[in-house]
Design a protein that fits this description.
The chain is mostly helical. It has a single domain, classed as Creatine Kinase, Chain A, domain 2 (2-Layer Sandwich), CATH 3.30.590. It is built from 14 helices and 10 strands. Strands 1-2-3 form a 3-stranded antiparallel beta sheet. The protein has a 3-stranded antiparallel beta sheet with strand order 4-8-7, with helices on one face. Strands 5-6 form a two-stranded antiparallel sheet. A hairpin with a 4-residue loop joins strand 7 and strand 8. Helix 2 runs antiparallel to helix 9. The longest helix is centred in the first third of the chain and has 23 residues.
């Protein structure tokens, strides 16, 4: 696909508004904006243009379709491949420590949302606020109920595997929920320095040391772009749904910044996160805002609705429908189970996921 766009194999193809780029997995392409979006409408228009351009490429040259969501439902582990071109030495260095031929590294698609901060004080406050709501975001964003032709054990199977993919060096993922930050220097020393020292002890390639992007917590500082990157969101079925998540999170954080917000103990957040990954909206949580993830998310939605801009409020109703009707993962699972009563599960999956490829092209949320 990249060769068709550029005439040769490259890691990145830059268009006018967006770029297609390669990371670890051979079968996944990442779409990135060339500059930060100025509005949700620009976000939707630009990324949908990118999705259609990519779909035209894959359809014309390969007779295939693009698929969103957090995991491919039929791809088998032994069919996955790592990108063998530029950056392959970095992937080889990873493989020597962690073994990339397992879930959590391959067959995952995430939607990474970057939120800017202006200075150290605002960056630390924003980081800690994101950490405090991080456990509940997968309840809304989960879209990975199936893999290898079967339904997984958890609502969010991408995160189930992501939690374990670097278990050889736990300080990199650190149970996904990050420790609360105090200062940039303290963060660089304890977090980035901490896992870098552990990598040294494991004999890691020096290219993996003291790099902020190695950090696999659910939200990380990207000092190179003065942004916080949220990593617990499954890729959705269409661009509009990605935009809705962005609008919800931005409006929510805006409201939490205005009001007094008490931070919950990290161990409690970890337990809540693990429950949400497993049970989605039905997860029982320890939180003053509710006893279940759905109750907490409903309260967070009220904060977002109250503090959203006019443009953001046009997308936030999609999040309300997810909270009321279930995450994409829960809806897909329910419909596969229903169809599998009349046919085998593989055929049921094909039927549902072909509809999801249509959602991507038509930019139509799936409910």
């Amino acid at each position: 696909m990249l060769k068709n766009l550029r005439g040769r194999v490259v890691n990145k193809v830059e268009m006018h508004k967006f770029s297609f780029s390669k990371e670890l997995q051979l079968h996944v392409l990442e779409i990135k904006p060339n500059r930060p979006f100025t509005s949700p409408v620009e976000f939707e228009e630009s990324m949908q243009e990118a999705a259609l351009a990519l779909q035209e490429n894959v359809c014309h040259n390969f007779g295939a379709r693009l698929l969103g969501t957090g995991m491919h439902p039929l791809l088998k582990l032994d069919e996955t491949r790592v990108w063998p071109h530029r950056d392959r030495q970095i992937y080889k260095a990873y493989d020597e420590i962690f073994s990339l031929k397992r879930y959590g590294w391959v067959n995952i698609q995430s939607y990474q949302l970057n939120l800017p901060y202006s200075d150290e004080e605002s960056g630390v406050i924003l980081h800690n606020l994101i950490a405090s709501v991080l456990p509940y975001l997968p309840a809304i964003a989960a879209s990975s109920p199936a893999y290898e032709g079967r339904l997984g054990e958890d609502v969010d199977n991408r995160l189930r595997f992501y939690k374990e993919n670097q278990r050889e060096i736990p300080s990199i993922t650190f149970d996904v929920i990050p420790e609360y930050a105090e200062t940039f220097s303290d963060y660089r020393e304890k977090v980035i320095g901490g896992y870098s020292k552990d990598l040294v002890m494991a004999g890691a390639d020096k290219r993996l040391l003291y790099k902020e992007w190695i950090n696999s917590r659910g939200v990380i500082f990207r000092f190179d772009r003065k942004a916080l990157e949220i990593r617990v969101l499954d890729e959705q079925e269409c661009v509009k749904s990605d935009v809705a998540l962005s609008c919800f999170i931005r409006a929510l954080l805006r409201g939490l910044l205005k009001d007094e917000h008490h931070l919950i103990e990290r161990e409690v957040l970890i337990n809540n996160f693990n429950s949400v990954v497993k049970d989605g909206f039905r997860a029982k949580v320890s939180d003053p805002r509710g006893k279940t993830a759905r109750e907490v998310c409903s309260l967070l939605l009220k904060v977002a609705d109250k503090n959203g801009s006019d443009e953001e409020r046009k997308f936030i109703p999609l999040i309300r429908k997810r909270i009321n009707n279930g995450s994409l993962s829960e809806i897909i699972r329910e419909r596969i189970v229903r169809k599998a009563q009349r046919t085998d599960i593989r055929e049921a999956m094909l039927n549902i996921y072909l509809k999801l490829t249509e959602s991507l092209i038509e930019n139509r949320p799936y409910f």
